[in-house]
Amino acid sequence: MKKTHEYNTNFKEEYKKALQFLKKGCKCGCSSNLPKEKFAKKRADFQTLPKKEQDALVMGQLSLMEEGEITTSSRFPKKERTNKRTFYSWNNITPICQQTYLNMLGVSRDYLEDIRSHLSKEGFATRIHGGVGRTPHWNNKANINQKVKKAVKVFLKKYAETHGLPDPGSSKRGKHNTTFLPADTTYKSVYLEYINDWKISSDFRQFKYLTFIRLWKEVTPDIKIRSPRSDLCDTCHKLKNEIHSCKDEKEKATQKKNFFGTENRKKTKENTITKT
Length: 276
Fold this sequence. Notes:
This protein has 276 residues and is mostly helical. Helix content is 57%, strand content 9%. It folds into two domains: 4-122, no CATH class; 141-275, no CATH class. α1 packs across α2 (36-47) and α7 (146-163) crosses α9 (209-219).
């Protein structure tokens, strides 16, 4: 069942589309004789129906609008044939063309032909979607869309804020400052953390490990794992550990300033030795 806000949004969109069609008009001109508000409301109401109810409604209308006569061929007089024709109408009175009828419901010609074919073969039986009984696409292959990418990005950003440190050597003018995770962190450990969050949150989706790594490098290339062969001195390592263990935000900010100050002094000293 559709939520209230989704229902209202869909109703307004379909109502607007119907009015746009009437403004443009059909090729034969029959649409100009129809009441605009009722026409638009009919389309909007139809589009807000569940899929099964839409199918049933169209099948019922087709059965009433189709007429046929039995004729014989001059070449094969003993062989009878039925010539069927659909007479589309507005409220079962005013004749309209197929183009106007399709826009009245907001459906495609392919959909209409599918309903017609089902009606002739299966009658009024409920149509069964071709995907029923099959494994969902999500379970056999990760369907990576923008919502999934956003979920991974949000998780990694939050993880980096908790466990990572900005690169002290990066330029403040840079658009993307690199954040380094501890050297003992692995891609696998972060992936397992993501899976744990997925189990308790509907915002996350589960997929394979390699897909997670590919998305990591795509959506957050500025979050990296520090190499074990880091050039951090003992003092920097000590300050880094103090930052991670600190729970107070103000104290953590102070520790970060000390960390960056130590790094900058070390780099200044190294540059001075290089020049001399």
